[in-house]
TrEMBL record:
<dbReference type="InterPro" id="IPR018848">
    <property type="entry name" value="WIYLD_domain"/>
</dbReference>
<dbReference type="Pfam" id="PF10440">
    <property type="entry name" value="WIYLD"/>
</dbReference>
<dbReference type="InterPro" id="IPR043017">
    <property type="entry name" value="WIYLD_dom_sf"/>
</dbReference>
<protein>
    <recommendedName>
        <fullName>WIYLD domain-containing protein</fullName>
    </recommendedName>
</protein>
<feature type="domain" description="WIYLD">
    <location>
        <begin position="3"/>
        <end position="52"/>
    </location>
</feature>
Length: 106
């Protein structure tokens, strides 16, 4: 097919061309003339737009993942600090009780 050859000439693999070409043919009611115009420019643009969209989605997913990780780390940090505080408080209370016991034994 000429569409595949034209895309191969600009470095686009067949596996990227086929699904986009199918969508364009459906969109244009199988009117090849609209796709063939300007040496398949519509096809190339659609492929590049799809690639840009995937990159944008990947960045968005990565940013969301980073945000979730930050929140989890922040919550974990708060949890640890709270537990250290409680443990310290309990240790202080225990030490105080021991001192009081020692004083009362005298």
């Amino acid at each position: 097919m000429n569409a595949f050859r034209a895309m191969k000439a600009i470095g686009i693999n067949e596996d990227k061309v086929k699904p986009v070409l199918k969508r364009l043919l459906k969109l244009y009611d199988k009117n090849w003339e609209l796709i063939e115009e300007e040496n398949y420019r519509v096809l190339a643009d659609a492929i590049f737009d799809e690639d840009d969209s995937k990159v944008s989605d990947e960045k968005e997913n990565r940013n969301l993942s980073d945000a979730v990780f930050y929140v989890c780390c922040s919550k974990l940090h708060s949890f640890i600090i709270w537990h250290v505080f409680l443990m310290s408080r309990e240790k202080i209370l225990l030490m105080k009780q021991r001192c009081m016991m020692n004083l009362s034994d005298r």
